[in-house]
Amino acid sequence: MPRIDYVRYDDASPEIRDALDESAYADAEERHLFYEMLANVPSVFDRRVEYFGKLMGGGAVPKREKELAYLTVALVTETRFVAATHAKYLVDNHDVLPETITALSGGDYSGLSDREQAVVSFTRAAVHDPDGVEDEKLAALRTAGYDDGDIVELLLLTCEAQTATTIATVTGMALSDRGETEPAYLPEEFAL
Fold first, then answer.
1. Cα separation of 136 and 130, whole Å?
2. pTM over 0.90
3. Euclidean distance between CA atoms 123 and 94, whole angstroms
4. Which of 7, 61, 155, 188 could form an SS bridge with 39, CB 3.0 to 4.6 Å?
5. Each residue's pLDDT tens digit in the chain (192 positions)?
């Protein structure tokens, strides 16, 4: 169980339920536990849901690449809840093979396109050491078709994912809180 209680959909105020119904992942699963955690802060909840919905569902960067970046942050920070959730989204909704997730979790990018490898490599570097992001990482993104706006969009998503991993870790969130298990293709240890 988490260290801070979830605000379950049935117990939430009408405003929180409306925002949950509009969340970025409302159609991907019954309810997203992360939003039920964030619902503890109703004063900013609807704006947070709206912002993340636009960040994840809008913009120029394809959603599959955003999910790969999100998974990368989770793997680098070793946040199992977020890794499991976004690995599932990639497999279920973005045609990423389970064995590609397993390989990526171990640091093997070979199952990804060159563009996706550039995204993962850049995101990994930005999370490990933002001061140490080399020009070559930016050049690889530009070679892959990213412009400055796309790179900033990817950075915004990376920062959002780091916020999520911190909240999930500190609060002790787990898929088992909803009776779910991690996907079998997610290894016990991450080496990204």
1. 14
2. yes
3. 19
4. 7
5. 799 999 988 888 888 888 878 776 666 554 578 888 999 998 998 898 889 989 998 999 999 999 999 999 999 999 999 999 999 999 999 999 999 999 999 999 999 999 999 999 999 999 999 999 999 999 999 999 999 999 999 999 999 999 999 999 999 999 899 888 999 999 999 997
